[in-house]
Design brief:
Two copies of one chain form a homodimer. The N and C termini of chain A lie far apart (62 Å). Among the domains of chain A are: 143 residues, 3-Layer(aba) Sandwich (Rossmann fold); 83 residues, Rossmann fold (3-Layer(aba) Sandwich), CATH 3.40.50. The first copy, chain A, is globular and about 55 Å long. The longest helix of chain A has 26 residues. In chain A, the strands form three sheets. Chain A has a six-stranded parallel sheet with strand order 1-11-8-7-5-6, sandwiched between helices. Chain A has a three-stranded parallel sheet with strand order 3-2-4, sandwiched between helices. In chain A, 43% of the residues lie in helices and 15% in strands. The first copy, chain A, is built from eleven helices and eleven strands. In chain A, helix 2 runs parallel beside helix 11, helix 3 crosses helix 11 and helix 7 crosses helix 11. Chains A and B meet through helix 6, helix 8, strand 6 and helix 9 of A and helix 6, helix 8, strand 6 and helix 9 of B. Chains A, B: It is an enzyme of class 3 (hydrolase). Chains A, B: This is methenyltetrahydrofolate cyclohydrolase.
Chain lengths: 328, 328
Amino acid sequence: MLRRSLGSIVSLASRKYSGKSFSSNMAQIINGNEIAKEIRGQLKQELKDLVDSGNPVPHLTAVIVGEDPASEKYVQNKMNACLEVGISSETKRLPASTTQEELLQLIAELNKDQRVTGVLVQLPVPEHINERTICNAVDVDKDVDGFNELNIGRLALDMDGIVPATPLGVKRLLEHQNIETHGRNAVVVGRSKNVSLPMAILLHADGKYATKALDATVTICHRYTPPKELARHCRQADIIVVAVGKPGLITKDMVKPGACVIDVGINRIKDEKTGKFKLVGDVDFEEVRQVAGHITPVPGGVGPMTVAMLLHNTLKTAKKQFCDRQAS
Amino acid sequence: MLRRSLGSIVSLASRKYSGKSFSSNMAQIINGNEIAKEIRGQLKQELKDLVDSGNPVPHLTAVIVGEDPASEKYVQNKMNACLEVGISSETKRLPASTTQEELLQLIAELNKDQRVTGVLVQLPVPEHINERTICNAVDVDKDVDGFNELNIGRLALDMDGIVPATPLGVKRLLEHQNIETHGRNAVVVGRSKNVSLPMAILLHADGKYATKALDATVTICHRYTPPKELARHCRQADIIVVAVGKPGLITKDMVKPGACVIDVGINRIKDEKTGKFKLVGDVDFEEVRQVAGHITPVPGGVGPMTVAMLLHNTLKTAKKQFCDRQAS
C-alpha cells in the first residue's frame, strides 16, 4: 500500500507540473531509434571486417506467404536495414494459396543453398499452414529469428544459440540504459513464444552462462491473470515488459515510481481527434511517463531494436557457417 | 500486510490447538507414495496391454559414472519400480575415470540398439564430463529424462515431447489433489533446468496445448531474489514449489493460509536429538503445515512421483518407437 500511495503522490505531482519546469520528474524516454542506429553502425563495421578477411557477404532470404500489408512493411524495414549494414538480402513472395508442402520445399532449398546464410519466414503464415512446422523446418544454423525448437531449447538452457530478436533487443535496451536487473523484480505481461517466454528466460536466468542473462526475479502474467493481480504484480516491479497487443493495458496506477517500462505492443488505432490511424503500444504512454523512471515509446522504442537484433542474428549465423565451413 | 496479519492469526490458532481436536486446521498432507503407487498400477496395466498387442517389452538402460551412493540409491529405486511395472531394465556402471568420449560412445551404442527403448544417464556426472553434452547426446526419442535440448525446446513451445519427471510429477500431484491453478499465483523457488524451469513453464503455459499446462501466473525466485522479496512473493502465492536444497528455507510466515506447498528439496541432515541422519526438504514442514492448505512431506511426497513419471516417460518413449517402426 505504501508503494501505491507514493505512486499517487508522485504522479499527482508530475501531472501538476508536467511540461513546465518540473518536467524532469518525467520518465526518461528510451530512444530505440538512436540506440538501434548505433548498433547498426557497429554491425556495418563488423560485416566489413568479416568480408575484408575473405568471407562472402552474408545473405538473408525472407519469405512472405500471402498478402498482409503489415508483413510487407515489416519485411521492407528489415531489408532496408540489411542494405544499410551491407547484408545482401532478397524477399521471396508466395501466394496465399501456397501449400505447406510447397513452403517446406522452398525452405529445404534455402537450407541447402550455401549462398543463403539466413532464412526468415515472416509470420503469420496463412491458417492452412502450421506455423510451428515451418519454424522448425528452418535450419537451426540459418534460423535468424531464433524460432526453431532447438534454438528455443538452447535459450532455455542458457546455451549459445540464436535468441529471438525482440527479447534480445529489449535486453540490449536495458543494458544500454544501465537498468539494474540483478535481484530486481521484473514482470513480463504476455506469454507468447516469440517474445514473452524468451524474455522471461533472459530476465530470470543466470548471468554467468552464454546468454548473459539478467538474474532478475520474474513474474509471468497473462490473459488469465486477474486484472487486480496484474496491477499488483506490476506495481511491485522494477522492470515491466508488456507484449500483448492491448492499447492502454498498463496504466499509471500500475507502475511503481521509477520503474522501467518497456512497451513491445504495436497497435494500430484510430485517433479520435484527427480521424487518422496511428500506432500505439500497450502502455498508456502519456500517463505512465509521469511515474516511470524509463519508458520506451511506440513507435521508436522496441521496434527498431528488433530489426537491429535481426541483423545481429544474421551476422552471427553467417559467421558460424563460415567458421564451420573452414573447419570442415 | 493484511495477508501477513491473517497468516499470523491463523498460524497462532493452529499452534495453540495442534495435535488436539482442532488438528483439522492443519494442512492436508499429500501422500506421494500412495498416488505414485496408484500410477504405477495404471502403468503396469498399460504395459500389459502394449505387450499383449504384440509389442516388445520396453527396456530402460541406466548409466552411472563413478561411485556416488545417492546416485546408486536413486537408480536402484528406478530399477525396482521398473521391475514392479514390468519394464525390462539394466544399469551400466562406469568408473569415475571414464572419459567423455567413452561415455558418448556408449550413449551412441544405446541410441542405436533397437532393444533399448529408454536411456538415462544418472546425474551428476564427474566434473571432467560436460553434463549438457551428455544430455544432448541421448537420442531425443529415447530421452526418458526429458533433458535433451530438443525436449526442453518442445516443452517451452507447449509441444508434445518428454517432460522432465520431477516437474511432471508435481503437475500430477496438483491435478490429483484438485488444486486450482488457472489464474492463480504460483511461485517457483529455484531456477534449475531439470526441475524449476520446466516447472515454471508447465505452471504458466496455456492449458489448451499438448502439454496441458496450468495457466497460473508464475513468479520465478532464485538465489539473487532478496530474502524479503522471496518472503513477499511466497506470501502472495496460492501454490509454492520449492526446489533449491536448503533445509528450512520456507517458513510459516512466508506461506499464505490455505496455500499448497510442494517441497522438491531432498537434504540429508543430522538429527540433533538422535544423532542420526535423516532426509528433509526445503520447507519447515512442522511449522508450515499449520498454515498451508496442502503440503508434501519429504520423504514420501515428490520423490516417488519422480520415479513414477520416469516410468511414464519410459512407456511413452517406447510406444512412440514401436509406432514409428510400424509406420516405417
